[in-house]
């Protein structure tokens, strides 16, 4: 076996789609060789091109993404500023002329050179072709002459004509038709290119067929040339039929292109020597699917054609082609074929995107295609969970397209089959973002399942909650080694674990969905989820409470120096214990904050609570590690630290469901209070400055025996005094109304009326209003707070502790840096404990409402023992019973409606029988 030559420049080879080798950058601190080659080509630096390619031949196959999405030769043949010498250098160096660009209709270098309309470049490519037949290379049915006529620059008159002459003299088939059945001369006549028609008729070594191919208006090339007077010479005579002179395969392809199904089926008595034949652009079956020929498709399948065969230039399978065009009959044939590989995600997404398209023409029907595919999918129920959430190249799932393009019935159908509302596309958008709230509420009602024939009053009556649509789909795929570092870093910490509360967290923030958090399905999920992670809350609270107590004891017994005398033995014992506890918990607090910053810096710095913790850390650090500061420093630091620590403790207690409503009230009222206060702060500052001007001491001051402090000696004190007066503490006896009696009394009266009475009462009323609103929705507020807290904990446990940007920079800068995934495996046990269904695909929970909301634990349950002795809250059980009762009433109504309809049908049948009897009687009566 030949030993592989090492690749320089920090690149490793990857296999490409056309069998060649692409390059992937692994590490380099210098400009990469592929970048140098691209610059050399664009600058026509021929010597540099030769040197770079000689050192690394694999550069010729490197695909430049995303700017060009093609190899260097195709770039050179398409860029206007690249000359023929540069193209010649690439060809001499071994560039592959048969390489194509799928994003550019499968064009090769020959097609790009023709479209560029540069004689020198085209001549280089034609001379480099190895076989005479290569000049007829097709790209989606187009040869180079087709491309020149369709996409060439006809304003370059001489160059345009000379390019056509080069191709014709090289032996290109001027009678070759494209996928629409148009030959080159027909296209030239349609566009009115006199020079090209002259070149084709006078320079072609083959007789030109002017009559076998027609436009949609039935005009041939001869008709157009004569009517538009596009040629002054004598036109060649009519050929018998040029389409059917080049063998069986060409005959079959021409029949398909012209839509001659009967001719295709009956040719050679229906016998086809090679049913999988292709013209390098399409197989026979692919072209039939593209043209919508159902009979021809059936004929090929009956003769044994491979329903999955593709070409290198058209990698779409026949069923994908039929699905994109909405050909229902062809799609049905391929779907029923036992060997057809069905890309369900692509098919579902395609049909849903076009679901509302009109049924035109009759053979196109996306709705019927979708319905048939779903019926086919239901025959494989074990595959539904994995197939229904498959994603396309944009990471969109079928549900993404359903909520945007189709009707409510289709959305509900996908949801009932288990389509996830939490499937994210590349833009981070989930289907829940676009779904209607009413539709989601109906779906949540359907997620409550129970035995419809069971007796509701029996003790063992059970209700099952289905959560599979609320949980994002799990990915069991492990990233390939060839994928780049950044893509690996985007993967979750543990591949099979997902943030189960992500959908509910979004609902808790969206106004239109907030009310749904009181639905029993959501409530039970959050209830069980809280019981899964409450151990984290308890540990966090215990550690922080120890930090708070040790900080308070340390401040009062040592740092603040309240007692200069000797301490009692109890105080010394408390101090001895509190110092090491404070040190340990302080460092744990630092580690906790650093961990949160590393995992999710964006979320961390959006939280006001985290800023309190950061300030508390700095102040506590100063208290612990600063050597004997003076009293003016110690006491302010001690006071601020205890205040911030108490604030943080209150906010932390608010994470518990029983206290969450109180903390939400505190936050909401404080926020709204300060928001309105800031809005009216201009008036407060104006009054403060007015008081400073009016009440500041002058030579005619108050009697000297008045020794109380004057708060109006400077604007700062005046502002502070004004803010204090907002509380009603006016202390008007100390104000000097003697200097400017009228002005001072008027301004002070305005302050009392506008600020002390109107503004303060307005703010108090606002606070009362907010409090009443929160109290009236206390249950919903608690669910919202619980959902957001649980999601934050999940994000921390499932995130990556090492920032991906930092690792990517290391990877790009240092050659010795290892290229591997840096997922934090140590968090896997914690993440599993936080997940409600870490290993179960069946995301369900069974509850016994008549046993006080007892949770059912089966042998194959994912609860791991934590569900034992857990009972739902009474309010939740009442809601469950209410929904069960409502569903039973709906069932009874449906039964009554069915019974009424049945009776009505019976009456109509009897009337019909009587009518028939009356007709018989009337016929028997004499006229």
TrEMBL record:
Its main location: membrane. The keyword Cell division does not apply. Keywords: ANK repeat, Coiled coil, Ion channel, Ion transport, Membrane, Repeat, Sensory transduction, Transmembrane, Transmembrane helix, Transport. It is found in: Membrane. It comes from Callosobruchus maculatus (Southern cowpea weevil). This is Ion transport domain-containing protein. Residues 1-26 are annotated as: Disordered. ANK repeats lie at residues 140-179, 394-426. The chain crosses the membrane at residues 535-560, 572-595, 607-625, 637-655, 676-695, 740-763. The keyword RNA-binding does not apply. Residues 877-904 form a coiled coil. Pfam families: Ank, Ank_2, Ion_trans. Residues 15-26 have a biased composition (Polar residues). One of its GO terms (molecular function) is monoatomic ion channel activity. Residues 540-778 form the Ion transport domain. It is a multi-pass membrane protein. GO terms for cellular component: cation channel complex.
